[in-house]
Amino acid sequence: MSSLQVSEDVREHLKTPMFDNWQWEEAEMLVLIQTMFEDLDLVSEFQMETRVLQNFLLEVHAHYNHISFHNFHHCFCVTQMMYGLMWLTELRTKLSRTDLLIMLTSALCHDLDHPGYNNVYQINAQTDLALRYNDISPLENHHCAVAFSIISKPDCNILKNVTSEQYKLIRAGMIKCILATDMARHNEILNKFRAIQPTFDFNNKEHKEVLMKIMVKVSDISNEARPMSVAEPWLDRLLQEFFNQSDLEKRRGLPVTPFMDRDKVSKPSSQTNFIRFVLLPLFLELIKLFPSLQQHILEPVRRALEYYGELEKKDLQDVQT
């Protein structure tokens, strides 16, 4: 771990979507994640030994692959966004420490050992993961399994001082949250949230579970809520991963995923569709419950839509001329 001393300024900045991941080394990011666990009182509440937490974070780091998008930097960004949302929405005062631990650790572990090829590829190529998990969210099931194989190591077990009842709760919660990041389930989870949102009750167990899933989902796909200088390199990396997959699908004679095909996809059109049909519906529901997110999440996303919309128009004009 780095010997980075986290200043007050950095601690405050860490609580906002403005945080710039590109300025930090991975060893420093590990210290920042440790700071998140400490500042949410998770270390004291669950009697985590500092050395064990650090070992756990180092193992998590070691289980992210060196690929374009689904790497440790992405893991950090998702964890940091989740942490920021907890402060912006004051969830720290509305949910239990157990719920906060589930959400933060799910964000941290949600893409462990991601191979860079999505579930559709796993299933069509009949990979070991697809066979192991019977084509049901093979990647997300794998991310969960890797997370708990790390936690099962005695020197990485951040849950070793919780009761068996607490452990069951935390494990069940993390599995639900990580499985919710499968985009194939996006509409199902969003519709559930939409249905309960008007009468949302923090004391209702089912309501709370849906919200926790939504928060992990939002953290996972909210790069567009960040400053453009932070978000745009992520888009380039994601498209690189998409194009690698469609190239492989073509070489292997598998069905080609349309939104990943380098011959059919442009950067602006992929963004405008994603923001319009995935991000905005999700964020619009969330700000009904947390109006404070209007300024921090919704407005930057609308600006991004405008920016890519202009580029898309320009592309069309160029094609027509």
What class would the helix/strand composition place it in?
mainly alpha
Radius of gyration: 20 Å
Estimated share of beta-strand residues: under 5%
Q: How far do the termini sit from each other?
A: 55 Å
Query: What is the ordering of alpha helices and beta strands?
Result: HHHHHHHHHHHHHHHH
Main beta-sheet strand count, sense and barrel state = none
> How many strand units?
0
What global shape is seen?
A: globular
Low-confidence stretches: none
What are the main properties of this structure?
16 helices, mainly alpha, globular, single chain, 321 residues
Give structural notes.
With 321 residues, this protein is an all-alpha fold. Helices cover 67% and strands 0% of the residues. It has 16 helices and no strands. It is globular.
What is the strand and helix layout of this fold?
Layout: H1 8-13, H2 26-39, H3 42-45, H4 50-62, H5 72-88, H6 91-94, H7 97-109, H8 119-124, H9 128-132, H10 138-151, H11 164-179, H12 186-196, H13 205-220, H14 228-252, H15 267-289, H16 293-320
Helix pairs in contact: 2-4, 2-5, 5-7, 5-13, 7-11, 7-13, 10-11, 11-13, 12-13, 12-15, 15-16
Short description:
Helices cover 67% and strands 0% of the residues. It is an all-alpha fold.
